[in-house]
Amino acid sequence: MLIDPDRGTVLKTIPFQYNPDTLTRTLTPQGIGKEPGDRLEVLRLKGPAQEQFKFDAEFDATDAPDKYPDGLYPVLSALELSIYPTVRQLQHEDALARSGQIEVAPMESPLMVLVLGPRRVVPVRITEFSVTEELFDQALNPIRAKVSVGVRVLTVDDLGHQHHGGVLYLTYQGRKEGFAQAVRNPISDVGTPRV
């Protein structure tokens, strides 16, 4: 889902045709102490862990050629364009730069929100994106494709607490904290002696 970063309104929803078979999550803590043996800082956290998701999304238009006259070009284009500035933005920036009004500055994109069920609604930035087109129609339109996606979860460190994405992140982390509270005596449950 793409959201206007200022107003919080939904600009576009890009549904996956099938749920991913697997989802890989990587979490990297943001500690302060970088050197081994730094006893004063080893347990301190600078901010939320950096979390990344990797998954494959599959798309298939072979059973409904009337529904997909251009094959998968529309859905693949919608996904790909989430990591491009628009032609209009590029032309506007070029016109301003040529007239000497501004230096070329990075353009803001819509906020991407990954929805993996009701419990995982997270603001993300795409870090990896590859498309494997596997089958084509007579006009060489792709009709079966697999999209491999890697994203990094955007936290309040990236967006701020008041930003729409920051609020989404805090809700996501709050849900994790709620689930973690459901675990009772995790140390004694696995047979580890109490300290």
Please give a handful of descriptors for the protein shown.
alpha+beta; globular; 5 helices; about 200 residues; single chain; 7-stranded antiparallel beta sheet
- Return the average pLDDT rounded to an integer: 85
Number of strands: 7
> What is the number of helical segments per DSSP (H or I, 4+ residues)?
5
Strand-and-helix sequence, N→C? EEEEHHEEEHHH
**Helicity range:** 10-25%
Number of discrete domains:
1
Separation of termini? 46 Å
Structural class: alpha+beta
Task: Give the strand line-up of the largest sheet.
Answer: 2-1-5-6-7-4-3
Mind describing the biggest β-sheet?
7 strands, antiparallel
**Radius of gyration from the alpha-carbon trace, in angstroms:** 22 Å
Binned strand content: 25-35%
Shape: globular
Q: Spans of 5+ residues with little confidence (pLDDT < 50)?
A: none
Task: Note the quaternary state here.
Answer: single chain
